[in-house]
Design goal:
Layout: E1 5-8, E2 11-15, E3 26-29, H1 32-40, H2 47-63, H3 70-82, H4 89-105, H5 110-139, E4 148-151, H6 166-175, E5 181-185, H7 192-203, E6 208-211, H8 216-221, E7 225-230, E8 234-236, E9 241-244, H9 247-256, E10 261-264, E11 270-271, H10 288-291, E12 292-293, E13 296-297, E14 310-313, E15 320-323, E16 326-328, H11 332-340
5-S-methyl-1-O-phosphono-5-thio-D-ribulose binds at residues 45-48, 88, 153, 155, 159-160, 165, 192, 230-233, 243-244, 309.
């Protein structure tokens, strides 16, 4: 499976997701500013992968920081990384984790602080892969056999440190012997489905069919789609789910056609501080992503554009939320609280 992001002696190495699938190229970020740019420009994208990148961004920032006024340098590093993309809560979760570790090490020799922060960032990455495998194990039994799974955007290995959340559920269902195939929404305007999901599943030999976003209703009505599985960027306390723009439409179509709609996400994507999805900040992306396709204009010059990168699916459309700690169902206020802090066995 492809490596999304790695810590190396040369810097933080990421596969360039703006170049796939035509070019398999890697970008090396040698300082925290380059990591921040890579997140903002979507060289790396997907909520858990953004979290791993932010953790490595803090680590590389401190690696190059000087002893003088270290606290304020760490603040600047964290603020720069936090200002990249507003919706995926994993970004803030990872920065917070690194900041808390730094606070616990304050006053120790700088070499030790650097080493511990690098180890922690690598741990965030390793844990993410294990978490995704656990999500897969919990989600696989929910997937109907001998049917097609519809997914939106890319919530796969590329959107995480490896294996994926939504695609992790699909992978685990296949590994458990289920005869399923995948329909991937192309996911306008950035085409994560067409470019990334199809490419990634092809690498694994999982039969995948590309459809345009506006075909989803047609295929759900046909009875072919057994379930929808998507990822999430932030899940509020009441179970409202922010995910790639278009997810809400897919969820409404799924309800209309009696198709289960599953969300697969790690606990780090839960934001239990928000009472509902109305409070989730929605990133607005450049107009050129809508007016242009691969640099070619498809709309008249001067066209007015809206480009929200995410929408919020109300909890009432969500059949279940699959996490590494188990499967949450409505009422989500209760089930998400329990799943976020499972009692020790
Ligand atoms: O704008 P992107 O490509 O970062 O959006 C990604 C998504 O919406 C994913 O579905 C979500 O982050 C979950 S990734 C496991």
């Amino acid at each position: 499976m492809v490596e999304t992001i790695e810590w190396t002696p040369r810097g933080v190495v990421m596969i360039d997701q703006t170049r796939l699938p035509l070019h398999e190229e890697y970008v090396t970020c040698r300082n925290y500013q380059e990591v921040a740019t890579a997140i903002r420009d979507m060289i790396i994208r997907g909520a858990p992968a953004i979290g791993v990148a932010a953790a490595m961004g803090v680590a590389i920032g401190v690696l190059h920081a000087s002893e003088a006024a270290l606290d304020s340098q760490v603040d600047t590093i964290c603020q720069t990384l936090a200002a990249t993309r507003p919706t995926a809560v994993n970004l803030f979760w990872a920065i917070d984790r690194m900041q808390r570790l730094y606070a616990s090490l304050r006053g120790q020799p700088l070499d030790l602080i650097r080493r511990r922060l690098i180890e922690e960032a690598q741990l965030v990455r390793q844990e993410d892969i294990a978490i995704n495998r656990a999500i897969g194990r919990h989600g696989a039994p929910l997937v109907p056999d001998h049917k097609t799974v519809l997914t939106h955007c890319n919530a796969g290995a590329l959107a995480t440190a490896g294996y994926g959340t939504a695609l992790g559920v699909i992978r685990a269902a296949r590994e458990s012997g289920k005869q399923i195939d995948v329909f991937a929404d192309e996911t306008r305007p950035f085409l994560q489905g067409a470019r990334l999901t199809v490419w990634e599943l092809q690498q694994d030999g999982i039969p995948t069919t590309l459809i345009t976003d506006n075909m989803a209703g047609h295929f759900m009505k046909s009875g072919r789609i057994g379930c929808v599985v998507v990822g999430a960027d932030r899940i509020a306390r009441n179970g409202d789910v922010a995910n790639k723009i278009g997810t809400y439409s897919v969820a409404v179509l799924a309800r209309e056609n009696g198709v289960p709609f599953f969300v697969a996400a790690p606990v780090s994507t839960l934001d239990l501080t928000l009472e509902s999805g109305d409070r989730i900040p929605i990133e607005q992306r450049p107009a050129s992503e809508v007016t242009h396709v691969f640099g070619h204009p498809v709309a008249p010059t001067g066209t007015l554009v809206q480009n929200p990168a995410f929408d919020v699916t109300p909890a009432r459309y969500v059949t279940a939320i699959v996490t590494e700690n188990g499967v949450a169902r409505a009422p989500y206020e209760d089930s998400l609280r329990t799943i976020a802090a499972p009692s020790p066995r």
